[in-house]
Structure formats: C-alpha cells, structure tokens
Write a structure and sequence with these properties.
Layout: E1 8-12, H1 14-17, H2 21-31, E2 36-39, H3 46-60, E3 66-70, H4 73-79, E4 83-86, H5 93-100, E5 105-110, H6 113-118, E6 126-129, H7 146-154, E7 161-163, H8 172-176, E8 182-185, H9 195-213
Parallel strand pairs: 1-2, 1-8, 2-3, 3-4, 4-5, 5-6, 6-7, 7-8
Domain Thiamine phosphate synthase/TenI: 8-189
Pathway: Cofactor biosynthesis; thiamine diphosphate biosynthesis; thiamine phosphate from 4-amino-2-methyl-5-diphosphomethylpyrimidine and 4-methyl-5-(2-phosphoethyl)-thiazole: step 1/1
Family: Belongs to the thiamine-phosphate synthase family.
C-alpha cells in the first residue's frame, strides 16, 4: 500500500512564486510542514518542466514530502516522481496507470459526485476535490462547490481526498470538518513573504483541529 500524507498539499505556481522561485518556495513550505508538493506549470516547455522537476526532486530528497507532477506523464516518469495528478480531460485513469506503472501515486481531480463515484480505487490513489471557492490560479476553472459540495462529493468515494480552490488559513476548520484528508493551497503559500511561516500556520491549524476532534 502506498504511503502518503495529504494534510498540507502545496501546488506550485511559477507566476505567484515570483523571484523566490518554485524550488525555494517548495523547500521553505516543506520545512514548515507541507506534506505533498505538486509541480503545476502549464506554460512551461517540456524541457523547462523537466528541469524544474529534477531540481524539485533533488531538493525534496531526504524529506518526507512527496513530489507530484501535474498532467505530464513523461516528466513524472523521467524524474522518478512520487506521483502524477491528472484532470478529467487528461486521458482515462486506466490508460495513465498503465503508463506510469503500479507504484506511482495517481491523483485525479473531480468536481461532482458523479465524477467521484466513477473513480476506481484500484487505479486512482487519491482525489483532488474542488474548486471549493473561485480561484484565479487556474484557467477555465469549474464552478466552485463550497463546503457543502465538498462534503457531498467526498462522501461518494472511500478514496483519500484533498480539497482545493481558494483555500486560505481561516478555512482550515471548515474544510477538515467535512471529513476530508487534507487541503491543497496555492496562493496562500506561493508568493507570500515567508512560505515557511505560512505553511507552519496551516500545519498548526490542522494539528489543532485534529487534536480537538481527537
């Protein structure tokens, strides 16, 4: 069984990371407690994507954080990434799984209860559910689903899942109250003055919620 922790899932954005860059942002966020790091860079060339992925792979070596590549199967395989994340229009999960092999983590974005129900736990390892709120970090974003929609979609499948889309620090309790396994953040860490400090704040809020619940 694959071991991974969805608690604090950082999705990198080249533009938001600005002068600090995606690699240094990732390093800082992981120091602060980020458990997963996804490289999402739709505007990068194949070579640029490969170089960034290699740098991230090296930077995260020796940490417990998992490196996930968004959409790009070839780059994920080439760098030996921990996982790949795909959307609804990036090929069937079954075809993708056949290409990446059994050992790589495979995540799938879903927006509706129907999509969640169709996700096969024998193929997909976790779901990314959202957007919870409107977000400017993704082009052609699906309609937001809010907390009620998040809970409804999550309840349709027993797979681990992470919430994504406009999530900020004050939302941690409401997101986790749906039962979901973790939350994905972009602008709440990328481009902030101290990505490490922001990640620590999220990590503390997550720990507080779980401690209070436990």
């Amino acid at each position: 069984m694959k071991q991974f922790d969805l608690s604090l899932y950082l999705v990198l954005d080249r533009e938001l990371c600005g002068s600090l860059g995606m690699v240094k942002t990732a390093i800082a966020a992981v120091r602060g407690g980020a458990t997963m790091v996804q490289l999402r860079d739709k505007d990068a060339s194949q070579q640029e994507m490969l170089e960034t992925a290699k740098a991230l792979k090296a930077a995260l070596e020796g940490t417990n954080a998992k490196l996930i590549i968004n959409d790009n199967i070839d780059v994920a395989i080439a760098v030996g990434a921990d996982g790949l994340h795909i959307g609804q229009h990036d090929g069937s999960p079954e075809q993708v799984r056949a290409k990446i092999g059994a050992d790589m983590i495979l995540g799938l974005s879903v927006q509706t209860a129907e999509m969640a129900t169709k996700a096969d736990s024998a193929v997909v390892d976790y779901l990314g559910i959202g957007p919870v709120f409107p977000t400017a970090t993704k082009k052609n974003c699906a309609p937001s689903i809010d907390f009620d929609g998040l809970k409804r979609v999550y309840s349709q499948n027993g797979l681990p899942a992470v919430a994504i889309g406009g999530i900020k620090l004050p939302h941690v309790e409401d997101v986790l109250a749906t039962g979901i396994d973790g939350l994905a953040v972009v602008s709440a860490i990328c481009g902030q003055e101290s990505p490490e400090q922001e990640a620590r704040a999220f990590n503390a809020a997550i720990a507080h919620f779980r401690g209070a619940k436990g």
